[in-house]
From TrEMBL:
The keyword Iron-sulfur does not apply. This is Aminotransferase class I/classII large domain-containing protein. The keyword Coiled coil does not apply. PANTHER family: TYROSINE AMINOTRANSFERASE, TYROSINE AMINOTRANSFERASE-LIKE. Residues 42-406 form the Aminotransferase class I/classII large domain. The lineage of its organism: Eukaryota, Viridiplantae, Streptophyta, Embryophyta, Tracheophyta. It comes from the Eukaryota. It comes from Solanum bulbocastanum (Wild potato). InterPro entries: Aminotransferase_I/II_large, PyrdxlP-dep_Trfase, PyrdxlP-dep_Trfase_major, PyrdxlP-dep_Trfase_small, TyrNic_aminoTrfase.
Amino acid sequence: MEVSSKWKFEGKEEAKKASACTIRSYLNTLNESINKNDTTRSVIPLSHGDPSGFPSFRTSKVSENALLDALQSAQYNGYPRNADIFHATRSIAEYLSRDYPYKLSPNDVLVTAGAKQAIDVLITALAVPGANILLPRPGYPAYEALATFNRLEMRHYDLLPEQDWEVDIDGLEALADDRTVAMVVINPGNPCGNVYKREHLKKIAEAASKLGMLVISDEAYGHLVFGSNPFVPMGVYGEIAPILTIGSISKRWLVPGWRCGWIVMCDPNDILQKHGVAESIKNYHNIGVVPPTLTLGAITRILVETPEDFYSNTINLLRKAAAICYAGLREIPCFTPYKSQGSMFLMAKLNMSFLEGIDNDMEFCTRLAREESVVVVPGEALGLKNWVRVTFAVEISALEDGLSRIKAFCFRNSKQQ
């Protein structure tokens, strides 16, 4: 048999680059660093926003029963029917409209397999040749990964830590040009735990309108707020600039494994429709996967019947955990933590001058994982070197144990010990 001397295929370089900048890639490296011989202590994951494995963060009985009833009905074992998708989009539109000054319709909503697929759909649909997009720094690296894969130019605007991580609007405007198609806003913030005031959101919308770009508002942590600022959806300013809102049931209802999210076109003036963007988004959405049919069968009850005390209990847990995390990190000289007002994270600045033999945040996180079996995310992964992101959405006892181990690690590696 003759064998070809020159194969015609090769790997895609963009896939390698995109994968390298994901949270998952960093966590894989950190988890591989954990000492497998340390069998006396459990690994404490202060690294990602999925507290569903901890007893205190179990989803509501309403959600569980809704999914169980959908399963036992035997009506949701196949591919989603048009009626299933319509009922889901109608329920999502009605649920979100409570917070909007105008009423959303089911036609404004696309259901996705979680917020991650929603990001994929929007970034891919907007990645026309020569276009660029403005991303926050620090930010959620899924945007960088998908922009890299789609060869969409990225420009990073700064969030200002001393101003509650507000957008540097002057810096944002200086980055934009006539090929800037969109900016991404994450509120409540991942990784910063910030919650934007209504007035600041309006300024962002006005800047977008001035620059002729749309806003992607990532609200995966919507309503998970416990500071002085209430959660305000960016879509309330859809009259000023077109807003594409991303959301999901993963965080507020504590079920990321159920894979159900949405894209909402908050655009009362139909600008997205007039410029063909709405059609592009819907066309690419049609190519991809859909949420599990079981989840679609349960979504209406999840949104409508979840009791208020479930939400308030979750908020109270997060408020308590955030305070413990902030106070614990403040006791460690090499950290300058910034208070969280929402989501499940806070950012802490590392003062490397306090540490002996540790030169950067990635080395800090790698050695912390190896020596103490505690995993936190290096700021390098989020666009801000020599910072770390800490997740406090874990059992309080695990959080306190994790903070104790971090403190021991830092003092053991301190130049002033």
